[in-house]
Design brief:
Layout lengths: L1 H26 L6 H18 L4 H22 L7 H20 L3 E3 L8 H6 L1 H23 L2 H11 L1 H6 L4 H27 L1 E3 L6 H19 L7 H24 L4 H21 L8
Antiparallel strand pairs: 1-2
Helix pairs in contact: 1-6, 1-9, 1-10, 1-11, 2-3, 2-4, 2-9, 3-4, 3-9, 10-11, 10-12
Length: about 290
């Protein structure tokens, strides 16, 4: 039971970040490396405000705003399409490494003695804490799904597919760029904020490799669903569900290897090899990308 609760808690706190990467990867058609820094800024803003005595709800909202601003910074670097999205994300993450350290004031912030959104629930029982985290993540996912199925979401996907055509229709493509990257990075910040609360600390290096892990997890989830139904399409509901499947599988494998007493030095290498196999499978069995 402890093993399953650990896997589910880790998966749920990571899920908003995976959704953000999925939106960036499939709707905006961009690999946004800013998410590494936005994950940390969510934890950093929340941790710093909590230690200053701010309300957990205000700290959570500020963390989301911090992630959104980080995404807007990355979008501003790309303005006019003059800088590639991948390079812009790397530059934004480089800048955020200093910003996050300025916000925190030190490399890490201890939160186990602080009152957070989930601290009371986890103090009473792990199951209650998991239920609360699941509720928060469910609300975030539902609001994101409703937003993406709206006219704004359709325009956002149109921007990713053909921004020049959208511009010819009289739409402000830079506005959609800013909004899209703000959304994906706000989701990453939410994941960082929830992770900091469940593990009990915010650390300046906790976002390292999060983007690549998330990309691997969503592709892994899609391939798992593809094995069951080769005619599966990528509508939004299935896209969200594939993210959940991939994230759960990733953390299940991670915790399973730890239970087998595998040397932590080899964990990333083993999981990386597993992700490579799924990536190669994705190339040989490409999914039909249909968004409805």
């Amino acid at each position: 039971m402890d093993f399953l609760l650990s896997v589910l808690t880790q998966s749920l706190t990571f899920l908003p970040l995976a959704l953000g990467i999925s939106i960036s990867y499939y709707s905006l058609r961009a690999t946004d490396m800013t998410i590494d820094g936005s994950f940390v800024i969510g934890a950093a803003v929340f941790g710093r405000l909590i230690t200053l005595g701010a309300s957990p709800f205000f700290a959570f909202s500020a963390a989301l705003m911090g992630g959104a601003l980080a995404g807007m910074m990355s979008a501003s670097i790309q303005r006019g399409g003059r800088v590639d999205a991948l390079l812009a994300g790397v530059l934004a993450t480089f800048i955020l490494s200093s910003i996050n350290l300025i916000i925190m004031g030190k490399p890490n912030i201890y939160l186990l003695t602080q009152t957070t959104l989930v601290s009371y629930a986890f103090d009473m029982s792990a199951i209650l804490g998991w239920i609360l985290v699941a509720s928060i993540v469910s609300v975030i996912c539902l609001l994101t799904l409703l937003l993406l199925t709206s006219h704004f979401g359709l325009s956002l996907r149109a921007f990713g597919d053909n921004p020049l055509r959208l511009k010819r229709l009289g739409k402000n493509i830079e506005g959609y760029r800013l909004s899209g990257f703000a959304l994906t990075n706000a989701l990453a910040a939410a994941a960082g904020c929830l992770t900091a609360q469940t593990v009990g600390y915010a650390d300046i290096g906790m976002g390292l490799g999060m983007t690549l892990t998330g990309i691997g997890a969503i592709i892994l989830g899609q391939q798992l669903l593809y094995r069951f139904n080769q005619r599966i399409g990528l509508n939004l509901s299935l896209q969200f569900f594939s993210c959940l499947c991939g994230v759960i599988f990733y953390f299940f494998a991670l915790n399973f290897l730890l239970r087998l007493d595998v040397n932590p030095l080899y964990l990333k290498m083993i999981l990386g090899l597993v992700l490579i196999m799924f990536l190669r499978a994705a190339q040989s069995n490409p999914l039909k990308q249909v968004t409805t």
